Amino acid sequence: MPVVVVESPAKAKTIEKYLGGGYRVLASFGHVRDLPPKDGSVDPEHDFDMKWEVASDSKKHLKAIKDALKDDQNLILATDPDREGEAISWHLLEALSPSLKKGSAVSRVTFNAITKNAVTEAMAQPREIDQALVDAYLARRALDYLVGFNLSPVLWRKLPGAKSAGRVQSVCLRLIVDREMEIEAFKAREYWSVHARLATPQGDEYDAQLVSLAGSKLERFDLPDAEKAAMAVSAVASRDLKVSSVAAKPASRNPWPPFMTSTLQQEASRKLGMGAKACMSAAQRLYEAGLITYMRTDGIDMAPEAVHAARDAIKARFGENYVPKSPRMYKNKAKNAQEAHECIRPTDMMLSPDKLRVSADDQRKLYDLIWKRTIASQMEAARMERTTVEIESPDHQVGLRATGQVMLFDGFLRVYDQGRDDDDGEDSARLPAISEGEAAKLVAKAFDTEFAKASEKDDPLPDAHAGQRAAPGLLVNEAASTAARQHFTQPPPRYTEATLVKRMEELGIGRPSTYASIVTTIQDREYVAKDKNRLIPEDKGRLVTAFLVKYFPRYVSYDFTADLENELDEISAGDLVWREVLGRFWKDFSKALEGTSELRISEVLDAIDEALAPHLYPARADGGDPRECPLCHKGRLNLKTARSGGAFIGCSNYPECRYTRPLSAPDGEEAVGDRILGDDNGDQISLKVGRFGPYVQRGEATEEQPKPPRSSLPKGWDAASLDLDRAVQLLSLPRPVGPHPEDGVLIEAGLGRFGPYVKHGSKYANVADIEEVFTIGMNRAVEVLAAKQSRGRGAVAAPLKELGDHPDGGAIQVMNGRYGPYVKWEKVNATLPRDMTPEDITVEQALELIAAKAAKPPKKGTKKASTKAATAKKPAAKKTAAKKPAAKKATSKKVAE
């Protein structure tokens, strides 16, 4: 029967069920070959010849396919319908070619969904492997190899601690570092807004904001401080107001297109808190289960039959009004989108999330998101009415505006509304019935609640005019009908995985199938950390980016990377020759590599220090030299690297001055370095910084005492806030607790390499909290030691039952062991049979078990002395056991098992 090869066993199982018994479906388990991770796997000197190697895990999968082909040489390659899937099919054919006879039938089939119809239709339309797609894969793989295996060693040699550099990952890292630099350089700007609570003649209240003052339109920063804000409050509160115009305009909102890979990752991050990797993993399982279409796509087109199925599902579930007159058609605006690839959608539009039979929570949530987005994309637009009310004073000196909207028809919003990133959204306030020309009366006490809440803050109070009240960030008139709120401009937000993917997509960097792995890689290599879903560059990431921008600026350029992606797409379309693209790239890249061969590490650090100077040494408020050491005031600050690969700012006056601080230290951070904390009993107590971090020391090193008492700071202790009392406490360790009540041996409490502990003789027990070391008493110390002894290796556990003495001497006990209860006599341990409980066992039964165990030959590695001792006592044990045949019967059953 024909042999069909797919990537995963789950996919193979489903497809074999659809195809029936006439086919043999096997899994390749992904790629079967790759470039060996060593120099020379891509040879630029020989037209970029590539040496492939079959992975050790793949050999058994290839063998299974070869064995199946012995019975039928008809090979059908049914890997995923993208460039990567095409490459896997090509690798399979290359690896299997020696096993195929001349004239063997080899075909390629693709399907966008694992459903019976999709699979059977694909099998009826076989084709050959698309060589243009394979060429694009070869070019991409060679480029990534050439960059990784040539640029990473430069980093290792010139920038200690750097792990690697990648063609696209380095550009992605630069995005995050550049954003962080923007945030750090950002200077907040103050501005105020003025608001009033108004009422119609019927008593209905609404809010309005000041938009013009003294006859001129107010711009954002026209009220830059509390003084001008207070004047504006007075201007509004002292005037009569009336409605000058009411304008109601119809508006509509159209639905978003169905998902492609990048938008799915973004929305899964926003709404479900899923990282890109977790999102794609859940989507992969949904795809293999036949529930959604292929999940690696940059197309938003939907198959005509799927569009009609979605419209039918909408009509059945929500009614005719929610179905637009004609189907919605979407065209991808992204550069180089593969329009032939369909969007990510459910394979069955009628299978709503409430009917889904999937146990995994992440898959259920993701399917719910995909189904709602797909259905909403074919629904009617939402219709609303937006109302704008203009309010003025008779002298036209003050103008306010109130806005709101009324939903007339929810349309697609009944099903789905897209999440937003760092966006305030639209004003959706509801307005009462308001007529042009009517009075707008100020409502007293409207801002009392807001004022009371603001008054709880400890921030400085703004200056208020007569007849006004002030709270932190808020000014109100005495009647509390008008208020001014303080605002500050905000820096650009840090990237989330969702917004990073969106930005990469906008720039044309990377492709859908690569986003998840890129974002994961830069975190795994500790270039970037994730905190509350925000991506923050680590010191290593900053250094790597600064190095690459300095010495390889072209190759971390956004435009260059996007242009290279365009060329790869042109290769896949058959418009460019892949080896020519590689030749042009390598010619320039190899020259850039040669330019760094003579660089010294000190030279690199100086260059990076200069490049990062605005970030590392921000201008001081007093106008002083930002590079002056704040500790010794003699040395200059410069960039240094640690053995761990991190970086820090240190004083050039080292070792006399040991001032250090992190690269990303906030403004005004206290100096962390050598400083004197005070005197204790005539000794100087100092805080110092060594190669393993900060520590405290009593006195100074002398010839008589080359190693004065010192102690590292425990984890969690802040070196900048350490005082003399805490340092003396630390140096007093180990602290005597007292003699143990049983043997009189001293118990001590101290701090060791594995954390805080109590010690009794040679036995140690960890203490959870460092603070307890300074206060622990005898009762607590004995309790901690006993708890450690009862669960520690080699601890003597209490017997479950004492059976008495053995005829040859020595106690017989029933113990509880790792594999269940057992009888113990000297060095013989005999497991209890399953039908025997520790409570019911008798001495005679125990002797029988001991005898049977002693009679067994020793296991390999067992000490001969133990067996010899047990065997010497065997006759007496047998003689005693003979008195109880019943016990022997029970024992023989256990021995036989």
TrEMBL record:
Superkingdom assignment: Bacteria
Annotated ranges, domain Toprim: 1-114
Catalytic site positions: Y294 (o-(5'-phospho-dna)-tyrosine intermediate)
Alphabetical list of Pfam families matching this protein: Topoisom_bac, Toprim, Toprim_C_rpt, Zn_ribbon_Top1
GO molecular function term, any single one: zinc ion binding
Keywords: DNA-binding, Isomerase, Magnesium, Metal-binding, Topoisomerase, Zinc, Zinc-finger
Keyword Ligase: no
Family matches, as InterPro entries: Topo_IA, Topo_IA_2, Topo_IA_AS, Topo_IA_cen, Topo_IA_cen_sub1, Topo_IA_cen_sub2, Topo_IA_cen_sub3, Topo_IA_core_domain
EC number: 5.6.2.1
Biased composition (Basic residues): 856-866, 875-897
The protein's assembly and partners: Monomer.
Protein name in UniProt: DNA topoisomerase 1
